[in-house]
Specification:
- By secondary structure, the chain is an alpha+beta fold.
- The protein has 4 domains: 100 residues, Rossmann fold; 69 residues, Dna Ligase, domain 1 (2-Layer Sandwich), CATH 3.30.1490; 242 residues, ATP-grasp fold, B domain (D-amino Acid Aminotransferase, Chain A, domain 1); 38 residues, no CATH class.
- It contains 20 helices and 23 strands.
- It is globular and about 75 Å long.
């Protein structure tokens, strides 16, 4: 349904790229809003550039540098006549200075207020804020330049501990410490990584929950204290602290725990007068305890699983809130329908510790079904480089039950073809097919615990040949050259040997 004529947003610049840019474009178009894509020179023919109504090329020594140039992006919005900026995720999406600069330029930032990003984006201040509002936080040691004092306080809490970067995420600057003898070196490494990745070397330590589950809650707020949760998601299957499979709702939790976690998330977001979409993340132990982990003040990569079970278009809701229209739904409107699973398709080699891969997309075969979404920004021939995150796409399925969703995801992964670069498609299918995943025995160390069971079976020479032949037959050009009758011969008719 298109927006009314008096809707205050008419054109949105998307300060991002790839699949999330395409995703935002889709919702904006359905609302009757125009979109502007931004891109580095190497991406001028990218899918998100073609799908947008207009595009602006960003200058930069590298593609990442271009996408991180806040001043250039704001100028692009002004020059193109955009009145709002959607940051997507990654890049500048959780940068309070960028959000503030957008609003100071007279543009609408489709996200939280800069003050909220500052409050919740810092892990230490967000922990203190959560604790002050009755949200459980793990016992911790705050950062200090006195290493001896830090080590002593850590020993008093007890091991294992998790050392984390105060200002970062994505697994960077995180180290598990199981004894006092490891503490100093782990703290040094964490601080060094934090400084390198986030420009802030502060680290802290907190109680590490062995085999924790990573449970997060999608919230939407209108900035006046009204906050609605859209249920929880399970994000426990990770490699190197980064998620690869997510699902909504979570795999079975102890009775009442999901509701308690969702209520804590709403309490925290309401206390912050949260505006727009956000995700409150927790770790949950086997004993039923749960602790606040962090809050991501943006749309999450895994938001489609929540959309699949609620029927809510989160991007549209984001735009409506930013436009001052508030929330179009209440908590009473939230009803879970079935189960959804998302698989992150990445250019990486699971057999080499998930090392990123480069290459070019030579063939892309996408399965189709009414219960499936394939979120991507790919094109055949597109180069996959080390310039960006290795995630290429997201395959999302829905089923009436968790069992049905698992089966549909395995089927869809089997039908998905991405040739030209090594991906984790087969690995994801093995994870989903494992007995442990099916039984819901999940935790953040799942990948390591089941490494041997998830390894691929040896491929015979015959099977390898068959795979190559099947792949070749998937190429239209190959089939045409092999099987089609050349025009000259066809003209001869039946008279030919």
């Amino acid at each position: 349904m298109s927006c009314p004529d008096d809707y205050p947003i008419r054109k949105i610049l998307i300060a991002n790229r790839g699949e999330i840019a395409c995703r935002v474009i889709r919702s904006a178009r359905a609302m009757g809003l125009a979109t502007v894509a931004v891109h580095h020179g190497v991406e001028r023919r990218a899918r998100h550039v073609r799908e947008a109504d207009a595009a602006v090329e960003l200058r930069g020594d590298t593609p990442v540098a271009a996408h991180l140039d806040a001043a250039q992006i704001i100028e692009a919005a002004r020059a193109s006549g955009a009145d709002a900026i959607h940051p997507g995720y990654g890049f500048l999406s959780e940068n309070a200075a960028f959000a503030r600069a957008v609003t100071e330029a007279g543009l609408v930032f489709i996200g939280p207020a800069p003050e909220t990003i500052e409050l919740m984006g810092d892990k230490i201040s967000s922990r203190d804020f959560a604790a002050s509002h009755g949200v459980p936080v793990a016992p911790s040691v705050m950062p200090t330049e006195d290493v001896d004092a830090f080590a002593k306080a850590a020993a008093e809490i007890g091991f294992p501990l998790l050392i984390k970067a105060s200002a970062g995420g994505g697994g960077k600057g995180m180290h598990i410490v199981r004894s006092a003898s490891e503490l100093r070196e782990a703290a040094r490494l964490a601080a060094s990584e934090a400084q390198r990745y986030f420009g802030d070397g502060r680290v802290y330590a907190e109680t590490y929950v062995d085999q924790p589950r990573h449970i997060e809650v999608q919230v939407m707020g209108d900035g006046t204290g009204k906050v609605v949760h859209l249920f929880e998601r399970e994000c426990s299957v990770q490699r190197r602290f980064q998620k690869i499979i997510e699902e909504a709702p979570s795999a079975p939790l102890p009775a009442g725990l999901a509701d308690t976690i969702c209520e804590a998330a709403v309490r925290l977001a309401a206390a912050a007068n949260y505006r727009n979409a956000g995700t409150v993340e927790f770790i949950a132990g086997a004993d039923g305890r749960f602790f606040f982990l962090e809050m991501n003040t943006r749309l999450q990569v895994e938001h489609p699983v929540t959309e699949m079970i609620t029927g809510i278009d989160l991007v549209r809701a984001q735009i409506d809130v930013a436009a001052g229209r508030g929330l179009a739904f209440s908590q009473a409107d939230m009803v879970r329908n079935g189960h959804s699973i998302e698989c992150r398709i990445c250019a990486e080699d699971p057999d080499r510790q998930f090392m990123p891969e480069i290459g070019a997309i030579r063939y892309l075969g996408i399965p189709e079904a009414p219960w499936l979404r394939f979120e991507h920004g790919l094109d055949p021939g597109q180069a996959v480089t080390a310039d960006f995150d290795p995630m290429l796409a997201k395959l999302v399925v829905h089923g009436a039950t968790r069992t049905e969703a698992i089966g549909r995801a395995i089927t869809a992964l089997g039908e998905l073809s991405v040739l030209g670069v090594t991906t984790n498609i087969d690995y994801l299918a093995r994870v989903l097919a494992s007995d442990a995943f099916g039984a819901g025995r999940l935790h953040t160390g799942f990948v390591l615990e089941h490494a041997d069971a998830l390894a691929p079976a040896p491929l015979s020479a015959l099977a390898s040949d068959q795979a190559v032949i099947a792949a070749a037959l998937g190429f239209h050009e190959f089939r045409q050259q092999v099987f089609d009758v050349p025009a000259l011969h066809a003209a001869i008719g039946d008279w030919r040997n």
